[in-house]
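This section describes the prediction task in plain terms. A model, or a person checking by hand, is given the sequence of a single protein chain and must write out its three-dimensional structure as a string of tokens. No templates, partner chains or ligands are provided. The sample shown here is typical of the held-out split.
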Amino acid sequence: MLSVNTNMGALVALQNLNRTNVELNEVQNRINTGRAVNSAKDDGATFAIAKGMESIISANVVAQQSLNRGISTVDVAIAAGESIGDLLNEMKAKALAATDTTLTATQRNAFNADFVALRTQLANVVSNASFNGVNLINGSTTTYRALSNATGGTINVSAQNFSLGGANVTVLATETVTSSSLATAALARVSASIINLNQGLANLGTASKSLGVQRDFLGKISDSLEGGISNLVDADLARESARLQSLQVKQQLGAQALSIANSSAGVILSFFR
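The expected answer:
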């Protein structure tokens, strides 16, 4: 039926054209962003899952940064400990030489001066072995805690006190080798300190390795999560490209159908000529 009041053909054509335009805008948005799910309006459940995974990735990044600081802190302590080991070896040689009862006063004073200089240098190494304000070998802290996961877990690193006169380096801060007996006592303390130091360095090395393993593990988890997010929200661009071309053709045909439907009312005028 033809009517001048209602053009149903044009209304249907307009509805179809509007629907095509909406679908076309959706496809163009996916191509522009590379994502099939850009907001909760697209797919609320998938969007929520993806955002939850993104929050875990962000937390893992924070934990990795904490672990990196921990690794650097421990590595500085290890480097300082290795320098202390070299100094103790030299001090052992000086103390051993000073146990010789045949030394002259001048010779003994020379050995003592070298021993004291090494002792002073050892103290300086200990006091300067800080990273980001944390020193693991001067006795100022007992435990260093680094974040280990997205839920606030930690890896605890036991500090090692390498200060003079401490539990590991038993050499006294006032140690000298000005006599054979003092040199013998110093030699015993230096020898014990070397054994203690090596054990302490082993503990720090194990801690540094643990921190590194956890950091790498978090990196792998984050990579897996990023892949999961991609599977959930990323658009198949090849498919969207094909759909874009289809909708563009459909849009053109819809516009032509609307034009034809709008011109059908003109047929009524031919009835009255």
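For orientation: The first helix runs from residue 8 to 33.
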